[in-house]
Task: structure prediction
Amino acid sequence: MKNNHKIMFFSSIILNIILVIVVLIGYININLENENIFIFQVQDKLIRLEGLIDYQEENDWEDSEIVAVKMREIVNGLEMGLMNGKNLHVLNEEESEILESLADKLNKFTFDKPYELVNLTDEHKEYYAALRDSLNEAGLKMNSQISKDWETFFHQAKKLEESIDVPSDIRYSN
Result:
Protein backbone atom coordinates (compact mmCIF):
# COMPACT_ATOMS: atom_id res chain seq x y z
CA MET A 1 0.00 0.00 0.00
CA LYS A 2 2.88 2.34 0.69
CA ASN A 3 4.03 1.98 -2.88
CA ASN A 4 0.58 3.00 -4.17
CA HIS A 5 0.63 6.14 -2.01
CA LYS A 6 4.03 7.12 -3.42
CA ILE A 7 2.84 6.61 -6.97
CA MET A 8 -0.32 8.66 -6.33
CA PHE A 9 1.69 11.38 -4.58
CA PHE A 10 4.21 11.74 -7.43
CA SER A 11 1.43 11.50 -10.03
CA SER A 12 -0.42 14.28 -8.25
CA ILE A 13 2.70 16.46 -8.22
CA ILE A 14 3.35 15.86 -11.90
CA LEU A 15 -0.27 16.62 -12.82
CA ASN A 16 -0.19 19.83 -10.76
CA ILE A 17 3.01 20.93 -12.49
CA ILE A 18 1.44 20.23 -15.88
CA LEU A 19 -1.67 22.18 -14.86
CA VAL A 20 0.43 25.19 -13.76
CA ILE A 21 2.36 25.09 -17.05
CA VAL A 22 -0.87 24.97 -19.09
CA VAL A 23 -2.35 27.90 -17.13
CA LEU A 24 0.84 29.94 -17.57
CA ILE A 25 0.94 29.26 -21.31
CA GLY A 26 -2.71 30.30 -21.58
CA TYR A 27 -2.08 33.52 -19.66
CA ILE A 28 0.93 34.37 -21.81
CA ASN A 29 -1.08 33.72 -24.99
CA ILE A 30 -3.94 35.91 -23.78
CA ASN A 31 -1.52 38.71 -22.94
CA LEU A 32 0.15 38.43 -26.37
CA GLU A 33 -3.21 38.50 -28.15
CA ASN A 34 -4.23 41.65 -26.29
CA GLU A 35 -0.93 43.29 -27.21
CA ASN A 36 -1.54 42.28 -30.84
CA ILE A 37 -4.89 44.09 -30.77
CA PHE A 38 -3.14 47.32 -29.79
CA ILE A 39 -0.25 46.86 -32.19
CA PHE A 40 -2.21 45.84 -35.28
CA GLN A 41 -5.61 47.47 -34.65
CA VAL A 42 -4.31 50.72 -33.20
CA GLN A 43 -0.61 51.39 -33.82
CA ASP A 44 -0.67 50.27 -37.46
CA LYS A 45 -3.84 52.26 -38.15
CA LEU A 46 -2.48 55.38 -36.43
CA ILE A 47 0.53 55.22 -38.76
CA ARG A 48 -1.78 54.82 -41.75
CA LEU A 49 -3.90 57.72 -40.49
CA GLU A 50 -0.85 59.98 -40.41
CA GLY A 51 -0.12 59.10 -44.04
CA LEU A 52 -3.77 59.49 -44.99
CA ILE A 53 -4.01 62.96 -43.46
CA ASP A 54 -0.81 63.96 -45.25
CA TYR A 55 -2.18 62.60 -48.55
CA GLN A 56 -5.50 64.42 -48.09
CA GLU A 57 -3.73 67.70 -47.39
CA GLU A 58 -1.62 67.29 -50.53
CA ASN A 59 -4.75 66.54 -52.57
CA ASP A 60 -6.97 69.30 -51.17
CA TRP A 61 -8.94 66.90 -48.97
CA GLU A 62 -10.74 65.37 -51.95
CA ASP A 63 -11.80 62.27 -49.97
CA SER A 64 -11.96 63.74 -46.48
CA GLU A 65 -14.60 61.30 -45.26
CA ILE A 66 -12.02 58.49 -45.38
CA VAL A 67 -10.09 60.18 -42.57
CA ALA A 68 -13.12 60.17 -40.26
CA VAL A 69 -13.82 56.51 -41.08
CA LYS A 70 -10.20 55.55 -40.32
CA MET A 71 -10.42 57.41 -37.01
CA ARG A 72 -13.53 55.43 -36.08
CA GLU A 73 -11.61 52.19 -36.77
CA ILE A 74 -8.79 53.33 -34.49
CA VAL A 75 -11.13 54.27 -31.66
CA ASN A 76 -12.93 50.93 -32.01
CA GLY A 77 -9.59 49.10 -31.83
CA LEU A 78 -8.58 51.05 -28.72
CA GLU A 79 -11.91 50.34 -27.04
CA MET A 80 -11.71 46.63 -27.90
CA GLY A 81 -8.16 46.38 -26.53
CA LEU A 82 -9.13 48.26 -23.38
CA MET A 83 -12.15 46.07 -22.78
CA ASN A 84 -10.13 42.88 -23.26
CA GLY A 85 -7.22 44.20 -21.21
CA LYS A 86 -9.44 45.12 -18.29
CA ASN A 87 -11.51 41.93 -18.37
CA LEU A 88 -8.39 39.77 -18.55
CA HIS A 89 -6.45 41.94 -16.06
CA VAL A 90 -3.46 42.33 -18.40
CA LEU A 91 -3.34 46.15 -18.30
CA ASN A 92 -2.00 47.91 -15.24
CA GLU A 93 -3.62 51.07 -13.87
CA GLU A 94 -1.31 53.50 -15.68
CA GLU A 95 -1.78 51.72 -19.01
CA SER A 96 -5.56 51.73 -18.60
CA GLU A 97 -5.66 55.43 -17.68
CA ILE A 98 -3.42 56.54 -20.56
CA LEU A 99 -5.20 54.41 -23.15
CA GLU A 100 -8.66 55.47 -21.93
CA SER A 101 -7.64 59.12 -22.11
CA LEU A 102 -6.23 58.59 -25.60
CA ALA A 103 -9.45 56.87 -26.70
CA ASP A 104 -11.52 59.76 -25.29
CA LYS A 105 -9.39 62.35 -27.09
CA LEU A 106 -9.39 60.48 -30.40
CA ASN A 107 -13.12 59.86 -30.13
CA LYS A 108 -13.61 63.62 -30.39
CA PHE A 109 -12.17 63.37 -33.91
CA THR A 110 -14.87 60.95 -35.02
CA PHE A 111 -17.05 63.39 -36.88
CA ASP A 112 -18.89 60.63 -38.69
CA LYS A 113 -22.30 59.29 -37.86
CA PRO A 114 -23.29 55.64 -38.24
CA TYR A 115 -24.12 54.82 -41.84
CA GLU A 116 -23.38 58.35 -42.97
CA LEU A 117 -20.20 59.72 -44.50
CA VAL A 118 -19.34 63.27 -43.59
CA ASN A 119 -17.44 65.97 -45.42
CA LEU A 120 -15.03 67.57 -43.00
CA THR A 121 -15.26 71.30 -42.40
CA ASP A 122 -12.18 73.51 -42.64
CA GLU A 123 -12.07 73.53 -38.84
CA HIS A 124 -12.10 69.70 -38.73
CA LYS A 125 -9.30 69.61 -41.29
CA GLU A 126 -7.21 71.91 -39.09
CA TYR A 127 -7.76 69.57 -36.13
CA TYR A 128 -6.64 66.61 -38.22
CA ALA A 129 -3.56 68.52 -39.42
CA ALA A 130 -2.65 69.20 -35.78
CA LEU A 131 -3.27 65.54 -34.99
CA ARG A 132 -0.90 64.55 -37.79
CA ASP A 133 1.79 66.68 -36.14
CA SER A 134 1.12 64.92 -32.82
CA LEU A 135 1.35 61.53 -34.54
CA ASN A 136 4.73 62.55 -35.98
CA GLU A 137 5.96 63.70 -32.55
CA ALA A 138 4.99 60.34 -31.09
CA GLY A 139 6.87 58.46 -33.82
CA LEU A 140 3.68 57.21 -35.49
CA LYS A 141 4.40 58.25 -39.04
CA MET A 142 4.45 56.64 -42.45
CA ASN A 143 7.64 54.86 -43.39
CA SER A 144 8.33 54.09 -39.76
CA GLN A 145 8.90 50.56 -38.62
CA ILE A 146 6.02 49.07 -36.67
CA SER A 147 7.47 47.84 -33.43
CA LYS A 148 5.91 44.62 -32.33
CA ASP A 149 6.68 45.21 -28.71
CA TRP A 150 4.28 46.47 -26.10
CA GLU A 151 6.68 48.89 -24.38
CA THR A 152 7.37 50.81 -27.60
CA PHE A 153 3.68 51.02 -28.47
CA PHE A 154 2.73 52.16 -24.97
CA HIS A 155 5.48 54.82 -25.02
CA GLN A 156 4.14 56.12 -28.36
CA ALA A 157 0.55 56.06 -27.09
CA LYS A 158 1.54 57.95 -23.94
CA LYS A 159 3.43 60.55 -25.95
CA LEU A 160 0.49 60.93 -28.34
CA GLU A 161 -2.00 61.25 -25.49
CA GLU A 162 0.12 63.99 -23.89
CA SER A 163 0.59 65.94 -27.12
CA ILE A 164 -3.02 65.97 -28.37
CA ASP A 165 -4.73 69.20 -27.47
CA VAL A 166 -8.38 68.79 -28.36
CA PRO A 167 -10.85 71.60 -27.68
CA SER A 168 -13.80 70.17 -25.78
CA ASP A 169 -16.31 71.65 -28.23
CA ILE A 170 -15.17 69.89 -31.41
CA ARG A 171 -17.77 67.50 -32.72
CA TYR A 172 -19.60 66.67 -35.86
CA SER A 173 -21.68 69.50 -37.18
CA ASN A 174 -23.56 69.75 -40.41
